[in-house]
Amino acid sequence: MDYTFQFGQIWPRLPYLLGGAWLSLQIAFLAFCGGILIGTFCAAVKTFGGGIARRIVNVYVVFFINTPQLVQIYFLYFALPDYGIFLTSYMAVLLGMTLNAGAYLTEIQRAGFESRRQSEMEAAEVLGFTRLQQIRYVILPHVAKVLFPPLSNHYILMTLGTSMAAIFGVEELTGRALNVNAETFRSLEVFSIIAVVYVVVTLFASVVLALIGRFAFRAKMRIV
Questions:
Q1: Of 92, 136, 168, 181, whose CA is between 20 and 30 Å from 76?
Q2: Closest CA to 99 of 157, 182, 30
């Protein structure tokens, strides 16, 4: 390979790229939190809800799991304005990732709900707990430990998935890398650096999540 790496033009722009990494983490965190709320509600509906409610949730889950996330964001950003709904590129990406995460987290959390201990549920019914109280005080504490590892893995995937926001002009890490590449024409250097930044960011998130899992839920998670 007859190529000489030259990082001289890239290093001064490193703080700019790291700012994009911070925005990537923000998008992933907000979308994940929104997805958790949607997933918890929809998992509860699929587990305890009536027939019509379960069908509505099933339609939502099937649609968002079986269509590409990029297409979903594309629809939100380019198609909704035809119906009088205008979203910024940032809001379209954030909403699209939240809805997509909500569908996947619904299925993950539903599996956790179904792993609840029947004896504990019977005890809660004897004590007169309402269905909402059973979910709040019996099911969620039990499933939190079981679900924490797969939820953590999904968060890491979402962090990497923020790179598609660059297509819509959001200046997260990949978006800023494209800007730097357009200014310097040093593609290999630029994308080598952001690859390293992605590795560092995801490893850092993995370590933080593993520590949280160990101390909060005593979950046996490997710290890379």
A1: 181
A2: 30
